Amino acid sequence: MTRPFLSVQGIEKTYGAVVAVQDVTLDIAEGEFITFLGPSGSGKSTTLYAVAGFLEPTKGDILLNGKSLLDVPSNKRNIGMVFQRYTLFPHLSVADNVAFPLRVRRRPKAEVDARVAAMLKLVRLESMADRMPAQMSGGQQQRVALARALAYNPPILLMDEPLSALDKKLREEIQFEIKRIHNETGVTIMYVTHDQEEALRLSDRIALFNAGRIEQIGTGHDLYEKPASRFVAGFIGNSNFFEGTLSGADRSIRLPDGTAIRGVSLDRLAPAKEDVAIMIRPDHFRLHDGSEAAAMLRGTVTDTTYLGEYTQLAVTTSWGAPLSVRLPQHDPAVSVQKGQPITLTCAPSNVRVF
Question: Considering only CA atoms, which of 101, 93, 151, 94 is closest in space to residue 122?
Answer without folding.
Answer: 151
